[in-house]
Amino acid sequence: MAAAALRTLAPSPTSRNTPPSIQRRHTAVTYNGRLDADVTSKDRIGFAIYWVPQSTDNYNGNRAYDIFHHRQINDAFSVIWNHTFSPTLLNELRANAAGWRWNEVTDNSQSPVGFPSDGITQIGSINPESFGPNVGSILNQWTYSYKDVATKIIGRHTSSSEGKRPASFT
Questions:
Q1: Which residues contact residue 101 at a Cβ distance below 8 angstroms, ignoring those fewer than 6 apart?
Q2: pLDDT tens, position by position, 8-28
Q3: CA triple 132-138-143, angle to 5 deg
Q4: pLDDT, tens digit, for every residue of 28-76?
Q5: 3-state DSSP assignment of residue 66
Q6: Residue-range domain boundaries for the chain
Q7: In 3D, which of 48, 96, 50, 99 has the Cα closest to residue 72?
């Protein structure tokens, strides 16, 4: 359905010089979810998701290749495991992944990449627009991390030992 909605901005072949009625369209939604389960009396597992797809369509001229699509996804995932070894010794293991990505080159296949972008200033009373494609970008960035924390309770005091490792990839 999203692909069909994006195509509605393109002018028909018979109306190449008629701009569409919608100059800009933006869609953004947010999804959150969490699932927890007591696997045993000493083990609890949890999963969380945060997912935000967005899309923007801009019509920046009067030609079909002046339509510019931007679709991105921001998301984060977490898995958490809590284990109780004894009433005074607890452990939490957590893994996270968060990403942000888009590919404006494949989303804008109508754009004649390789043609130069240029413009003509006013000629007499004629004020032509710029011409040439808007070339997009590609981003695929992810950050991963894990953390393991053991907590020991001794009387009124707690002592924790932690190991963690973050990593980013683009």
A1: 72, 73, 139, 140, 141
A2: 444 434 333 444 555 778 899
A3: 160
A4: 999 999 999 999 999 999 999 999 999 988 876 666 667 888 899 999 9
A5: helix
A6: 2-10+27-111+132-169
A7: 99
Euclidean distance between CA atoms 147 and 143, whole angstroms: 14
Q: What is the pLDDT of residue 132?
A: 66
Work out the average pLDDT over 82-95.
96
Q: Nearest to residue 41, comparing CAs of 88, 86, 95? A: 86
The pTM assigned to this predicted structure is 0.66
Six token digits for residue 1: 């359905």
Helices (H), 30-141: 104-107
Q: Which amino acid is at 100?
A: W
Q: Which segments of the chain are extended strands (E)?
A: 24-28, 31-38, 43-59, 67-86, 89-103, 138-154, 157-169
Is the CB of residue 45 less than 8 Å from the CB of residue 37?
A: yes
